[in-house]
UniProtKB/TrEMBL annotation:
Pfam family name, one: Guanylate_cyc
Transmembrane segments: 20-41, 303-325
PROSITE patterns in the cross-refs: GUANYLATE_CYCLASE_1, GUANYLATE_CYCLASE_2
InterPro entries attached to this UniProt entry: A/G_cyclase, A/G_cyclase_CS, Cyclic_nucleotide_synthase, Nitrate/nitrite_sensing, Nucleotide_cyclase
Subcellular location as annotated: Membrane
SUPFAM superfamilies the UniProt entry points to: Nucleotide cyclase
Biological processes per GO annotation: intracellular signal transduction; receptor guanylyl cyclase signaling pathway
Phosphoprotein found in the keyword field: no
Single GO MF annotation: adenylate cyclase activity
Guanylate cyclase domain residues: 381-511
Name the UniProt record assigns to this protein: Guanylate cyclase domain-containing protein
Protein origin, superkingdom: Eukaryota
PANTHER family attached to this UniProt entry: GUANYLATE CYCLASE 32E, GUANYLYL CYCLASE
Length: 588
């Protein structure tokens, strides 16, 4: 059988089918590996493209964030100048930095600009032309800056939301929160500076301060939750900011203090610079992470391409090797099959010979190299027979004639006992020994099996003529006894399954004290046969048995199933002129 098909594996079609099967077994995993690597290659190419896009988007984000920072610095320096009249140079420097940031954006500015907005109008329309001639009137004065910053922050979020990698999303969230926090701190600081200068805040400015202050604290707390290693605000600057934050929340009128305004301005700018430094560090970390991802994606892409190429090169070589190996295996299997058939035939012969010498259960135990222990049987029936006048016949016959006579007789016996649940123990000379009830126990049937077999044997050899003595018929004596015995394998060289016990000796005495063509049974056998019923038994009387003393014995004369048969109807199994030579003579 090969799968669902049944055929001769040594045939040509079978060899082709086996070859096809082997090639399919090889090609299926190769195709699977190729497909897997192609899918991985597709994923790596996609990952590489996304990483490149993320790198470009991050570069744009960094440029826009730089613009946002300089705009915020310009706004803060402008507020301080308008409130104190100092640091005019810082204002002009901030405006110059803003212009440089705009020029640095280059083509990226087109992405940032609103529709129909030219480069030169982006800041010019929002910047205060002559701050030294203006009076600070509140936060609404800087609404153009605030609107620009809100717009830039929205563009930052938009520029980094499409291809951001899962490995840097945490850093990106912190980065975005810091941008929002810096903007909220800027606006809140402007309102604090206004409070220090004016001594109070109007209702709308006060509400704006509450919103911006709470938003800044929320963004900073959120950033620190995502990155616990962040150190954003130092204690010195924070104490100053916290003091004026408390004052603004109380919103009680105080006198104008220039030194307090300067102190708060420097504290806020220091905090904002620290935040921008943290922001720059996060930018650097994100960029390094993205570059590592680009290198990793490029490396995995190269490995996938290399694997696909190697597989495509090796596959034909593997196919040729499989073909050669399969042909070798098929040739070897053909020879092995022939040898296996020969070995199976020889094993069958040896098994048949073993089963003829030993019981099958004992043979199986010996084959498994297990010790066969002796076993006690409570009740078995032993059969013994011998040839009447065998000594005289042997004296007047050659050895070969005796062998042919015994072979013919025992073949007849062997064919008869096959019909019964009995085991042939051995033949020694003219003695023929059979037992029932071992090695497989059969209850009380052992006596009935031996009795029926004995009747068949006596009937079967009726008229048996000695082959080389045409005028002389052969007669046998039969003895049967029932009782316990011990059976086991004796010896390691030419092992024999032997029986031991007084039951065997008594059966032998029944045979030796019997009469020709009669079945001599003991009293123990009679008792069992009576229980079975149907057997005809006749009392012989008391017999002096060697080693046992006097015993009451019986003759087994027949069975009720034979009552309707007349002597003419009982046809002996022996056929005249049929002489069988021994097997060893046929081999020779």
């Amino acid at each position: 059988m090969y799968g669902c098909f049944k055929f001769n594996p040594s045939s040509r079609n079978a060899r082709k089918l086996f070859m096809t099967h082997m090639l399919i077994v090889l090609l299926i995993p190769i195709a699977s590996v190729v497909m897997q690597n192609m899918l991985l290659l597709q994923q790596h190419v996609k990952s590489y493209s996304e990483t490149i896009s993320a790198n470009e988007e991050m570069a744009l984000t960094i440029n826009i964030t730089r613009l946002l920072n300089v705009i915020q610095n310009e706004r803060m320096s402008l507020v301080f100048y308008m409130l104190t009249g100092k640091n005019r140079t810082q204002v002009e420097l901030s405006i110059e930095h803003t212009n440089d940031a705009l020029n640095h954006l280059g083509e990226d500015l087109n992405y940032l600009l609103p529709a129909d907005t030219a480069n030169h109008t982006l800041i010019a329309d929002m910047r205060i032309k002559t701050p030294e001639n203006e009076t600070f009137t509140g936060l609404e004065y800087f609404e153009p800056y605030n609107a620009l910053n809100r717009y830039v922050i929205n563009q930052i979020v938009r520029s980094t939301g499409t291809s951001i990698s899962s490995t840097v999303w945490r850093q990106f969230v912190v980065y975005k929160n810091l941008i929002e926090a810096i903007e909220s701190i800027n606006i809140a600081a402007i309102l604090v500076l206004q409070f220090i200068c004016n001594g109070y805040l109007g209702l709308s400015d006060y509400a704006q301060f509450i919103r911006r202050d709470a938003a800044a604290l929320d963004y900073i707390a959120s950033a620190q939750n995502f990155m616990t290693s962040l150190s954003i605000i130092s204690e010195a600057e924070f104490s100053v900011m916290q003091y004026w934050r408390t004052q603004v929340l109380i919103n009680i009128s105080t006198g104008y203090r220039r030194d307090a305004l300067v102190e708060y301005y420097h504290s806020v700018t220091t905090v904002l610079k620290n935040l921008q430094m943290v922001q720059d560090q996060i930018q650097t970390d994100v960029k390094e992470t993205i570059l590592e991802e680009i290198q990793s994606a490029r490396r995995h892409q190269s490995i996938s391409i290399g694997l696909v190429v190697v597989i495509l090169i090796i596959s034909p070589i593997l196919v040729l090797m499989i073909q050669a190996a399969t042909s070798t295996i098929q040739n070897y299997s053909t020879k092995l099959m022939a040898r296996t058939m020969e070995l199976r035939m020889e094993k069958g012969k040896s098994d048949r010979l073993l089963y003829q010498m030993l019981p099958p259960a004992v043979v199986k135990q010996l084959k498994q190299q297990r010790q066969v222990p002796a076993e006690t049987f409570d009740a078995v029936t032993i059969f013994f027979s011998d040839i009447v006048g065998f000594t005289d016949i042997s004296a007047s016959s050659s050895a070969m004639e005796v062998v042919i006579m015994l072979n013919t007789l025992y073949r007849l016996f062997d064919s008869i006992i096959l019909k019964y649940d009995v085991y042939k123990v051995e033949t020694i000379g003219d003695a023929y020994m059979v037992v029932s009830g071992l090695p497989q126990r059969n209850g009380n049937r052992h006596a009935g099996e031996i009795a029926m077999m004995s009747l068949d044997l006596v009937c079967g050899i009726s008229g048996f003529t000695i082959p080389h003595m045409k005028n002389r018929t052969l007669e046998i004596r039969v003895g049967i006894n029932t009782g316990p015995c011990v059976a086991g394998v004796v010896g390691t060289t030419m092992p024999r399954y032997c029986l031991f016990g007084d039951t065997i000796n008594t059966a032998s005495r029944m045979e030796s004290t019997g009469e020709p063509m009669k079945i001599h049974i003991s009293e123990s056998t009679k008792e069992v046969l009576d229980k079975l019923g149907g057997f005809k038994i006749k009392l012989r009387g008391t017999v002096d048995v060697k080693g046992k003393g006097t015993m009451q014995t019986f003759w087994l004369t027949g069975h009720s199933m034979y009552e309707h048969l007349t002597p003419e109807m009982l046809i002996p199994m022996y056929k005249q002129n049929v002489v069988t030579e021994p097997d060893f003579l046929q081999i020779i």
